[in-house]
Structure formats: structure tokens, C-alpha cells
């Protein structure tokens, strides 16, 4: 996925997801969201209400609404694509405003990466209002903040800045700190599936695959620096979908799907 329906190239894409047989890409530099079919053919590009200035992340939530992190407003935009209506949500917790970076909807809960604390906020809709119930900031000190996180049936998995440590929070609230995987330089995103951890290194332009154990043991790596398909320049995000592992490459303006990734 490299172009929109009008043929214009993606510019600094930041995130992508899969929903009901379609891929959705945040084309940040062009201030738009683009949908693609399962074969990667562009279908539609939108900028609802002209509100997208610096969109960072997206996911589908309750009622099939699309939720977008809009950095220029420090807000979450809840978009009803059918009616083209938009509701703005600004998150607060204990009197303090949160600064959303990434978001995930799962089983009625919204999980948001907060740039200020570096933790993961957990919120629910109460009527039309989004209420933050808690923020997971690990007890371990020092803590430098998370770069990325994923929510799975066994809890939250998160990647810490600088230290490269992996944190896990179980549904019962048990917190684990994993030793950092060796060989990484600037990891920016992670995925967890099938007893493996996938870590994207922005500097090395590689995806490293580790065993799901503490400490993680390297199994193999793939991808390399470059500008052609199958190569990375400034990768940003990994996202596991039923179609495979999505790799968002901000530098090359491309989103690729690795069918063998899961």
C-alpha cells in the first residue's frame, strides 16, 4: 500500500489497522485516512470535517465508530463514517490532561498511551463521555516511559524507551519486567503472537523475532535498509492482523503485509 485512490503517494504514514476485510492507513503527511481492500487496492480517502491535521493512530471502537489520535488538538476524534459526525474527546485523570499517542479498543475498554506519564491509560465510555479509570505506570524505578504497547487476552505488553525492557501486566494486575532483548538499537514497536515477540528496530531497519520467555531469545530477523518493496527506511509500527503482519514504513511512505508474520 503506497498510494491513495487519486494516485498520490503516502506521505509519512504513522499507523495502520484491519477491520472487516479492509485495511485502514493513517496517511499523516497528507492529512487523511485511506481504506484498502484485502489485496491492497485503495478504495477511499477521507479527512472528516477537515479535522485531520496530524493524525497519529486509529482503531475501531463501539458502534463501529472510528477513533483517531489527533495530535494537533491533543484529542481523540470519534468518527461516525456513516453520518460523517465527529465527537471530540479530551482525556483527563485526577485533574491532569493526558497526551494521547497510540490507542487500542478491546472488549469495551479503550487503552491509550499517554506521552506525559509514559503509561497506558484505561478508559470506558459512560454515556457519551470517555472516563479514564486508571493509568498503568510500572512500579519499577527508574521508568522512562513506553514507546508502544499491545493488548492481548493475557494482558498488556509494552516496550520501554531507552532501556528496551518489555513489561507485562496480567488481567489480575500482576506486573512483570522482562530483561531487554539483546542486539537492539532503537526499537519502536512490538507485537506478541504464537509464543513469539516481534520487535521493530527503526535504526537497524529490521524485525527481530524472539521467544516469548524471560529473557527473550533471538530466533531470527528479517528486512533490511532500502527503498524497494521488502525493505525499510524509517519504520514506525507493527500491527498483527488476520492477513499477516502489517509493517508501517514512515520513511518509504509504504505499508506492507507479511503473510508469514503471525
How does this structure look, described?
This protein is mainly β. The protein has 2 domains: 1-137, Neuraminidase; 138-262, Neuraminidase. 0% of the residues lie in helices and 53% in strands. The protein has no helices and 25 strands. It has strands at 13-19, 22-27, 32-36, 42-46, 55-60, 66-70, 75-80, 85-89, 92-93, 96-97, 100-106, 109-114, 120-126, 129-136, 146-152, 155-160, 166-169, 175-178, 187-193, 196-201, 206-211, 218-222, 235-241, 244-249, 254-258. The strands form 7 sheets. It has a 4-stranded antiparallel beta sheet, with no helix packed on it. A 4-stranded antiparallel beta sheet has the order 5-6-7-8, with no helix packed on it. A hairpin with a 2-residue loop joins β13 (120-126) and β14 (129-136). The chain is globular. The protein starts with 12 loop residues before the first strand and ends with a strand.
Brief sketch in words of this structure:
With 262 residues, the chain is mostly beta strands.
Itemize the secondary structure elements and their pairings.
Layout: E1 13-19, E2 22-27, E3 32-36, E4 42-46, E5 55-60, E6 66-70, E7 75-80, E8 85-89, E9 92-93, E10 96-97, E11 100-106, E12 109-114, E13 120-126, E14 129-136, E15 146-152, E16 155-160, E17 166-169, E18 175-178, E19 187-193, E20 196-201, E21 206-211, E22 218-222, E23 235-241, E24 244-249, E25 254-258
InterPro entries: 6-blade_b-propeller_TolB-like (IPR011042)
Protein name: NHL repeat containing protein
Organism: Thermosulfurimonas dismutans
Task: Give the oligomeric state.
Answer: single chain
Name the shape in a single word: globular
Name given to the CATH architecture of the largest domain: 6 Propeller
State Rg.
18 Å
Helix-strand sequence: EEEEEEEEEEEEEEEEEEEEEEEEE
| CATH topology value of the largest domain | Neuraminidase
Strand content: over 45%
Largest sheet, in brief, is:
4 strands, antiparallel
Number of helices: 0
Q: Which regions have little confidence, pLDDT < 50, spanning 5+ residues?
A: none
Q: Which percent range fits the helix content?
A: under 10%
Rounded average pLDDT: 94
N-to-C span? 19 Å
In total, the number of strands is 25
Strand order of the largest sheet: 1-2-3-4
Going by helix content, strand content and strand pairing, the class is: mainly beta
CATH class of the largest domain: Mainly Beta
